[in-house]
Amino acid sequence: MIRPPLVLASASPRRMELLARLGIIPDRVVATDIDETPRAAELPRQLAARLALAKAEAAATSDALTLAADTVVGLGRRILGKPADAAEAEAFLTLLSGRRHRVITGVVLALPDGRRLKRVVETTLAFQRLTGQQIAHYVAGEEWRGKAGGYAIQGSAEAFCRFLSGSHSNVVGLPLFETAQLLRGSGWLRP
Ligand SMILES: Cc1cn([C@H]2C[C@H](O)[C@@H](COP(=O)(O)OP(=O)(O)OP(=O)(O)O)O2)c(=O)[nH]c1=O
């Protein structure tokens, strides 16, 4: 069987690295430029699902499989996306201090025949209480840039995390278990 090419509709180097752990190197990488603004009263899960689909649709073609994902942090009904600046990163970490939150990733695999295979994956985390000094030091380190919620679990922020339930790769931007399931479900990945 000839496999169609795989397109990764993401500019995130983490998603490339996570796919590489499955032995997968996309044939093409396409950065999409979609509006990531939440709609009024939109919930974190709804946003992650909607944006993953929008990224997939922006890059999908009829001769390839297209994989897209979107990761957001949910604090109750509140959505924490990628902070715009250091002040917002500091505000997000202040909100996350001492509280449970969820990291939600929507994953969409667009098939050449027009089908769209979808998953929304949630990981629950709890951060220790953070002092103002810890937050300021973390923000000065720049790891928050381009990361939902203003932190990167794959960096030093794992030291803030006293509890994580669910998929770790989901927090980094692509849940490997569910992604492999989607690729297998499409017949693209074997065994
Ligand atoms: C919470 C958390 C998020 N992130 C990242 C994963 C995502 O790349 C990013 C959320 O932004 P996304 O909009 O999901 O992705 P992106 O802007 O990096 O790339 P693209 O839109 O082109 O696909 O936050 C981490 O790397 N570590 C973490 O601990």
Automatic annotation (TrEMBL):
Its EC number is 3.6.1.9. GO terms for molecular function: nucleoside triphosphate diphosphatase activity. Its cofactor is a divalent metal cation. It catalyses: UTP + H2O = UMP + diphosphate + H(+); dTTP + H2O = dTMP + diphosphate + H(+). It comes from the Bacteria. Gene3D superfamilies: 3.90.950.10. The keyword Phosphoprotein does not apply. GO terms for biological process: nucleotide metabolic process. GO terms for cellular component: cytoplasm. Keywords: Cytoplasm, Hydrolase, Nucleotide metabolism. CDD domains: Maf. SUPFAM superfamilies: ITPase-like. It is an enzyme of class 3 (hydrolase). It holds the Pfam family Maf. The record marks R14, T71, Q154 as: Important for substrate specificity. It is found in: Cytoplasm. Coiled coil: none annotated. The active site is at D70. Nucleoside triphosphate pyrophosphatase that hydrolyzes dTTP and UTP. May have a dual role in cell division arrest and in preventing the incorporation of modified nucleotides into cellular nucleic acids. Belongs to the Maf family. YhdE subfamily. This is dTTP/UTP pyrophosphatase. It comes from Plastoroseomonas arctica.
